[in-house]
Structures are given as C-alpha cells and as structure tokens.
Amino acid sequence: MFDAMQWLNEPPHWSVDDGTLVVTTGDRTDFWRETFYDFVRDDGHFYGREVTGDFTAQVTLAGKYETLYDQTGLMLRVDENNWVKTGVEFTDGTAHLSCVVTRDFSDWSVITAPEAAKSVTLRLTRHGTAIRVQFRTPDGAWQLLRLGYLPLPATCQVGVMACSPQRAGFRARFSDFTVTEPIGRDLHA
C-alpha cells in the first residue's frame, strides 16, 4: 500500500489509517508547466516511491471537489520537467477525469466523470515509453482515458497526488493503492 513512500511537498495534514491515505492540501498547490497559463508550478503534494521497469499502479480516489481545479490522482514522475498526473479534477462546475502529460510543457485532457461514482478507480500502466491510463466504469469495465508517450529512465517514481490551485483545505482520500507487474498490452480486450 503506502509503504516505503516519501513526500514531495508534504501537505499540512495527512494520515494513513487501515490502508487509506487522507490528505488535506496546502494553499494554492499544483503541478503544471507553461502551456496556456505561462507559469510553472511544482508545489502539489506527491506521495511516491521508486519503481523500476514496467508496472501498473492502481488507486481508488475520493474527495470533496468544490473549488476550481481541486484534484486527486496518480502521478508518474521523473523530475519537475517530465511527469504524468491523472485523476479527478473539478472544472466547469463538475468533477472530470483528467490527464496531464508533461515533457517540459504540460498538456491537459478531460472528460466528464461517471455521474454515479462517489469514488473513481484509476490505473496507470507503463509499457516502456508508452503510458496507458484507464478508469473503471460504474459497471466494472476498464475504459481507456489516455495513451501517451513519455521517455523514461529505467527507474522513476509513482504514487498519489493532490492539489488545490485556488485554495487550501481540499480533503482527498486514496485507498486500495497498489503497484504490480504491468497488465497485458492488448488495448481492446
């Protein structure tokens, strides 16, 4: 679960109880580089560990998404210039599934989150330089959210992240976090 993990930008309040991590964010935290907004932010809360080679990371996310850009998710990180974050983000008045791939510049893609979901389960798989992001639909099927390219060294970091770019005090919950051998490469199974 959350063994052998370390904080990048430790939040003001956090706890792990019975395998669930609860985080309360600091003020105006985010991960973003340049695109559209012309700023760099690398002060979001990331709780991660090193992993070598291909893998699948999975987590169930929940939060009290109320303010623009409140977000929870998984993060794959090489350094401040090269990373992926994916999860749930509050924008346009509702929760969306979100994915940002950063190679010096961030991009951003969103889709509306499943309405029936009080929590969302996501998984991120590394297959060499290909990063596959999927979410579990309310009927239990896995749906592709993003297939992206990110050149990675053999060892990188993976974990969970939470940010609140417009405020402090966003409360996020992470459960059932695992890092395992990678799932198969068949995208359409």
From TrEMBL:
* Origin superkingdom: Bacteria
Against Pfam families, the record matches this protein to: DUF1349
Under Gene3D superfamilies, the record lists: 2.60.120.200
Identification of the protein by name: Regulation of enolase 1
